[in-house]
Amino acid sequence: MDLNYTVSQVAPIALLPFFAFVINAFIVKRFTKLAVAISCTAIFLSFVISAFIFNDFFFNVYSADYHIHRVFNWFNLDSSLGLMPFKMGIYIDNMTAVMLLMVSGAAFLIHLFSTYYMADDKRFGRFFVYLSLFTSAMLGLVLSENLLSLFIFWEIMGFCSYSLIGFYYEKEGAGNASMKAFMTTRVGDVFFLLGIVAVWSVVGSVSYVDIYNAINQGLLSGNVEFLGLSVSLATFAGVCIFLGTVGKSAQVPLQVWLPDAMWGPTPCSALIHAATMVAAGVYLSLRIFPLLELGGLLPLVAYVGGITAFGAATIALVQTDIKAVLAYSTISQLGYMVLGIGVGSYNASFMHLITHAIFKACLFLSAGSVIHSLHDHHTHAHVQEMPRMGGLRKKMPLTFFAMMCCTLAITGAPLFSGFVSKDRILGDALLLAVDAGGAWWGPTLLGFGGALLTAFYMFRMMFLSFFGEPRDKDLYDHTKVEKFSINRNFPLLVLSLFTLGLWFSGSFTGQGLVKVPGVENKEWFKTTIVKPELSTLGKFRTYSSDDFSQQPTPVQTWEKSKYDSTYGLSEEEAHHIHHIHHIGAIISVFIFLGGLFLAYLMYIKKSLNPSVFVNRFSGWYKALLNKYYFDDLYIGKMIQKGLLPLNNLLSNFDSKVYDRYFIDGWATVTRQLYRLSNFIDSLFVDRVLVDGTGTSVRFFNVILRTVQNGKIQFYIFVLFVVLASYIYRVTNF
Amino acid sequence: MHRLLDYILWLPLLGALLILFIPSQKKEAIRWSALGTTLLTFILTIVLYLGFDQSVAGMQEQFSVKFPWIEQFNIFYSLGVDGISLPMILLTGLLCFLCVLSSWTVEKSVKAYFALFLMLECSVMGVFMSLDFFLFYVFWEVMLIPMFFLIGVWGGENREYAAIKFFLYTFAGSVLMLVGMIALYFLSGKNVDSFNILALQGGKFSNEILNVFGTTLSFSKFFFVMLFIGFAIKVPVFPFHTWLPHAHVQAPTAVSVILAGVLLKMGTYGFLRIAFPIFPEASVYFKEAIAWLGLVNIIYGALCAMAQTDVKKLIAYSSVSHMGFVMVGLAAMTIQGTNGAVLQMFNHGTSTAMMFLMIGVLYERSHHRWIVRPDGTKGFGGLYTQLPVFSIIFIISMFASMGLPGLSGFISEALIFLGIYQEFTTITVLAVIGLLIGAAYLLWMFKRMFFGEVIDSVKDYSDMNAREIFYMIPLCIAVIFFGIYPSPVLNIMKGSVGSLVELLGRFQ
User: Fold this and answer.
1) DSSP labels for A186-223?
2) Do B307 and A75 touch (CB under 8 A)?
3) Number of structural domains, chain A?
4) Which of residues 167-206 of B touch A (CB under 8 A)?
């Protein structure tokens, strides 16, 4: 196969769903079924193209450096120095190829599931319109070659997220949630834009490759001065762009929007708020990894990730809504990815992004499958409260199977994907803590602690909903027994198949299931996804970009990747790394078992009563129920007590003080002035000068008779003379 | 073809004259002739766009028309277009056409309304085409007359106050401009080029000195400030902005659209055409102050907008905020900043016009504009459910207004940020907060009006009719198309903008 793709072969990945969106936007009202079919077909075709690309990257080429980089001028500005091009384009490397397959695959399965879940909804078609737009934006983001076009797709996804969270717009709560989601992410986004601008100002482009090269050449070593501060440019830009990640990936302190995002239909939660959009934040941070490294921000990143991973897990402990548990677990897992970036565990962090996308999408779809089946006949609403569930595994065995696989994956059960990826992040964190010590222990311990909580709350969720006796007998009896149907169960089963660790690590033992001809090794993920460290950025100078209109550069021969993260290290050092990783893995296994056991004791055996803990730690319990009072702080204090009164104050100042006195006040000033001049005129000119000369009344009579001759020109003339003499007087005083 | 500018300029006035000869009972005939006139004008502006040679840089060179007008004072009737005025002329042509459509439901003295409206179009076109300072001033002033009557007669309950306020405020600015113009006339030697905007450009007055009240001042700085205030009132730049909320709230829909879409841009156009190129060294001297004023506009306008309970007032303050971005972009005096500012003038013209048109559509159904009524009850609620088509178009205009990437406002804002960052980092860092609040007030307004249960007073609203949808479509297409592909506008302006920036650069 020809490995030099033309643009027309690659661009349809994002364009097909976009065309589906455009077509559906017009036909959805009349031809709902057709619109749905178009959306599903489009994303399926995208998936097929992505699969071809994936095949090329990993089964044909298998090189750490293989990439496709094609650009075109979006628009130009002229300057005396020549053209200032603003470029757009596509950049596909191994990471992109994996992302494309994951996004299009997950999106296709979720589209399929949505045809089951949303079928009875009165806005069935409209849901797919948004879904198509979203998918095309996400795929566009993945294909982007620079931060600016990434930002554009990023915001379009934000718009889709806004629309889908507010999908049930009859409900006031949906409106609040959608606004909160958009605004909270917008906080990160505006700083992200600022970061882009800061990078642009020195690099002259925001293409990833150009940024890497600029860092390599030391272009970003200068300082930025603002508000009297002087900060290194890399730190400034790094913090700003990382804030984009914090907003989009719901990291502390901007995590507040994601739980509310659950107002949207469940499939959209699966796609947007679990698998793809929230992961895009992590993807961004991975792309700018050298910038974070140069800016010295990795400890900050690690702490943000660690605190998020642990804090969100604690909140998940007390949730009773099945979707809320999953929402907090999403925040927590995103925290692990960010933690992974912070500790330099680039590869594992990206792997966790992929594994999490798969098992979390599956968890949400399974939850959707549960919620959709539980129909309360009194309120005509679907039930998502876990206290009303219980024993559901008999009613829906297939959903139970899928959800169990995913739970094992997310909790880090050995052999499952979550174990492979999360354990590596924690292993790297542990390694760093052991070697560098000090502050690195913080995120590491938070990470391990969060893993324990994860195991506990996930099994709590499973036990409460699928095990034990049904707690709401009426609801249980009205629930039909699950029968296999393609659009309901096929996505679940496919996704649960990919919760196995061997897809990612290579095999059960971590060695080569995916055999690549000519490569002895090993693990495809580890050998192809290479961290762009400061020390290795030099290679990007050889990365060429071709214009869309030109023929691609002739096929190079790409060396098969033999990349090994321990390459160049002494035997001893390598042994040390493996040793620490083994210890980490063993701890992880015990942690998993510990969490499972605790949940078992509380919710199956019931030998531990949760209410004991609730009473013992009532203050903490309240804090957890109130999500650590973040909403209270942001909405209650900062917005309602700070921003809105400030707005009212300014607005009142503007209309009632400034406008009334300083602007309309001029009217008063003018009125006083004319009163004054009128006074002068009548007193001095008229009474003293005119009337006062009473002795010559007759003389004046003559004059006045002459003057008041009714000729308008004469009046004006007099007026003019008087005015002129008046001005002459005034100016000569 | 070479008299194209003449046709575009005088056609609306001809239309107004024609309407004066139609008996006032024949309302349909009046409306159709107004529509025909504006449509023809719009088509001519497109012809102008197609005939415009993008490769010519420089200021005001194409399609020029020049005759002596008042020869004793060397005043010429002199017209021309360049890359900065052409987008504005296109915008005026488009918006006037759409506004006539949206004014179809005006029933009060239809004849006078459309005649005045066409007169307004003529004067606005004149401002954007004039190459002679005196002619520019005349059109600038003539524009006040139709505006005064349009607000004062067809406006809301407090229309007289708003009309007088608008008139006096703008007039005060014009007087300062008049003084500047006369001073330039005398200083440049009362010769053939003394009112010639092109000939005055280039920093010829850098070294002139002025004695006022016994102190010696730089001529250019003194009169730059005068011209600045004159134009700043029109933009409006803080602290000269308070006429805007009154005028917008009281004006009828179409006048609001023209006011926000075109008239505000006359102020920034004045900077680009007159104040900056004639006094480049003074512009450079004051650029940081201008940038700070622009920043105040952005933040202050946005914060005030958030407090409003009247939708139209909210959008009026949002205009203050958005024009702040234009000011900041102009003050950067860099390629990106100035291109961004001119592009923002165009994009804000389309997006804010959409907002006002949509609110006009809503007002025809509700006859009020309260988000929250003064007694604290909801003015609207559940519009999303009640008016689905309206809601979708409203969403497009709202997101275009807040600069969502993919819609037109984003590119201009991004360019402005790129431009200003290189000059004033602090201002850039603070200005992004404006983007944040900009999204907040719009989304909050949207949430309160469109989400939730349908409230009783909303239940009998009908969705948009064909005419209303028809006049929104061109703007929807514009905000989406220029958001994806801004080159058609950027290509015409970048040559002229480049030479202006180059001129200013010589005085940095």
Assistant:
1) HHHHHHHHHHHHHHHHHHS--BHHHHHHHHHTTGGGSE
2) no
3) 1
4) 169
Q: Does B342 map to a domain?
A: yes
Rounded to 5°, angle at Cα A55 from A51 and A58 = 130
**Nearest CA of chain A to the CA of B152: how many Å?**
18
Instruction: Give the bridge partners for B212, in sequence order.
Output: B215
Residue A610 resides in a domain: yes
Phi, psi of A106 (to 5 degrees): -60, -40
What domain range is B393 assigned to?
Answer: 286-508
Interchain CB distance below 8 Å, A175 and B300: no
Q: What's the token pair of residue A570?
A: 């002494």
Closest residue in chain A to residue B495, using alpha carbons only = A78
DSSP classification of residue A560 = P
Query: How many residue pairs bridge chain A and chain B with CB atoms within 8 Å of each other?
Result: 151
The domain in which residue A471 lies consists of: 297-505+576-625
For A15-33, how does the pLDDT look when each residue is reduced to its tens digit (9 = 90+)? 999 999 999 999 988 899 9
Q: What is the distance in angstroms between the Cα of A623 and the nearest Cα belonging to chain B?
A: 28
Q: Are B176 and B226 in contact (CB under 8 A)?
A: yes
pLDDT in tens, A115-149: 999 988 888 999 999 999 999 999 999 999 999 99
Contact B450 A201 (CB under 8 A): no
N-term to C-term CA, chain A? 96
CA distance A508 to B407: 49
Question: Quick one: three-class SS letters along B186-204?
Answer: HHCCCCCCCCEHHHHCCCC
* Predicted model pTM: 0.91
B443 contacts A182? CB cut-off 8 A: yes
| DSSP codes joined into one string, A451-495 | HHHHHHHHHHHHHHHHSS--SSHHHHHHSPPP---HHHHHHHHHH
**Which run of H or E residues covers position B67?**
strand B62-70
Whose tokens are 């195991």? That residue is A455
B123-143 mean pLDDT: 93
For tokens 């090329």, what's the residue? A56
Distances (CA, A) of B132 to A203, B202, B323: 43, 16, 26
Q: Give the whole-angstrom CA distance, residue B94 versus residue B98.
A: 6
Residue A38 has pLDDT above 70, yes or no: yes
In a domain, B497, yes or no: yes
B324 domain residue, yes or no: yes
How much is the pLDDT for B390? Answer: 94
The candidate with the shortest Cα–Cα distance to B438, out of B286, B311, B229, B298, is B298
Asked if the structure places residue B193 within a domain, the reply is no
